[in-house]
């Protein structure tokens, strides 16, 4: 799986760290507590999404009909890795459960299947079962680099937050930190993510500054709209990878009252302006640091990517949701 850089703010600036990036509760879902339905994509992305789902189902069917085929194991691993990359883990729950019953599996194969299974279970509302699988996964990878486990935790925690279980989201992160108790950097990242989610339900922090074009921007001027505040940098690969989805989301929902404000960790506005022009990003950008203070400090953000959704009443409604999950949350907020 590819690695992607993300930034940690330190006293001396930004430390770029390589993390495994996946293209992103302690109690079961209560009665009626179901995940937000993912909204269907449109246009080109709808075509790709349809073909991806059909491909996954075709491979799953092949494995079910040919469990002893020489390439059945390779097919299963492709299935799990592809589902994780595309956010379609719910499509492979049954194949993952069957795969894990096979005798003689090596640890990397077990880990890949467990990743897809626990996230797939969480996406279908079975968060208690997902957590059980996640615990087994952590036991198997506790002597490896912690960052892939952190990615899985981020996906699971997002499902808990979407279901309204902030305590469950916190516990998922704390379990990762406990599994790698001697890793101080991981603990710092986990504490930062927990701090961000504690803003949910609170009024959005002040965000007022000149944008990169020199025009005044104040998030208070977006009252009555749903606003996505996106902390990013041109050096942050997972930030950049999310832009096609954000552009489509903006195109589909801008006239319905959806806005995006980018907050860049880059060194200066010239870098941001050049990238925005090249990528044709239609929303406004401000720099994280300005004469009016540091925006990320008010949003309790030390690492990127970081994403906040502000509802029509000006409160933080959700943090760090992406892909189809983001589409679902935005649709729900716009309908309120």
Task: Kindly summarize this structure in a few lines.
This protein is an alpha+beta fold.
Question: In words, what does this structure look like?
Answer:
The protein is α+β, with helices and mostly antiparallel strands. The chain has two domains: 3-197, Serine Threonine Protein Phosphatase 5, Tetratricopeptide repeat (Alpha Horseshoe), CATH 1.25.40; 208-335, 3-Layer(aba) Sandwich (Glutaredoxin). It has helices spanning 43-65, 72-86, 93-99, 107-123, 127-141, 147-162, 166-179, 184-197, 237-253, 269-279, 295-298, 323-335; strands at residues 3-10, 13-20, 208-210, 216-218, 226-232, 258-264, 284-287, 289-290, 293-294, 303-304, 306-310, 316-319. It has a five-stranded mixed β-sheet. Strands 2-1-10 form a three-stranded antiparallel β-sheet. Helix 5 packs parallel to helix 7. The longest helix has 23 residues, at 43-65. The protein is globular. Residues 1-7 and 9-35 have low confidence and may be disordered.
**Order of strands across the widest beta sheet?**
7-6-5-11-12
What would the CATH topology of the largest domain be?
Serine Threonine Protein Phosphatase 5, Tetratricopeptide repeat
Domain count? 2
State mean pLDDT (0 to 100 scale): 87
- Spatial gap, N to C terminus: 39 Å
Q: Regarding CATH, which class of the largest domain?
A: Mainly Alpha
Beta-sheet strand percentage?
Answer: 15-25%
Which H/E pattern describes the elements? EEHHHHHHHHEEEHEHEEEHEEEH
Q: What's the main sheet like? A: 5 strands, mixed
Stretches where pLDDT falls below 50 for ≥5 residues? 1-7, 9-35
Shape: globular
Compute the CA-based radius of gyration: 20 Å
Q: What structural class should be given to the helix and strand makeup?
A: alpha+beta
Estimate the helix proportion, in percent.
Answer: 40-55%
- Let me know the number of strands: 12
CATH architecture of the largest domain: Alpha Horseshoe
């Amino acid at each position: 799986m590819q690695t992607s850089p993300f930034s940690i703010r330190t006293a001396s600036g930004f430390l770029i760290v390589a993390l495994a990036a996946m293209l992103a509760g302690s109690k079961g879902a209560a009665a009626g507590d179901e995940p937000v339905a993912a909204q269907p994509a449109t246009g080109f992305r709808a075509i790709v999404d349809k073909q991806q789902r059909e491909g996954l189902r075709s491979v799953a069917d092949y494995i079910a009909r040919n469990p002893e085929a020489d390439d059945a194991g390779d097919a299963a691993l492709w299935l799990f890795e592809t589902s994780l990359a595309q956010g379609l883990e719910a499509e492979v729950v049954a194949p993952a459960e069957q795969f894990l019953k096979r005798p003689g599996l090596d640890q990397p194969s077990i880990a890949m299947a467990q990743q897809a299974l626990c996230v797939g279970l969480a996406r279908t509302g079975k968060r208690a079962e997902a957590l059980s699988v996640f615990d087994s996964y952590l036991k198997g990878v506790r002597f490896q680099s912690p960052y892939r486990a952190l990615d899985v935790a981020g996906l699971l925690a997002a499902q808990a937050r979407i279901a309204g279980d902030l305590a469950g989201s916190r516990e998922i992160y704390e379990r990762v930190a406990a599994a790698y108790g001697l890793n101080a950097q991981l603990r710092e990242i986990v504490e930062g993510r927990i701090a961000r989610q504690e803003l949910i339900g609170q009024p959005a922090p002040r965000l007022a500054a000149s944008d990169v074009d020199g025009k005044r921007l104040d998030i208070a001027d977006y009252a009555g709209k749903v606003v996505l505040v996106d902390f990013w940098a041109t050096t942050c690969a997972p930030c950049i990878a999310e832009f096609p989805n954000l552009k489509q989301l903006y195109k589909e929902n801008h006239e319905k009252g959806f806005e995006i404000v980018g907050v860049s960790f880059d060194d200066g506005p010239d870098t941001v302006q050049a990238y925005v022009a090249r990528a044709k990003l239609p929303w406004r950008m401000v720099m994280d640091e300005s004469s009016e203070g540091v925006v990320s400090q008010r949003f309790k953000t030390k690492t990127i990517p970081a994403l906040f959704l502000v509802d029509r009443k000006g409160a933080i409604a959700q943090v760090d949701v992406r892909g189809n999950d983001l589409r679902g949350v935005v649709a729900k907020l716009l309908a309120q």
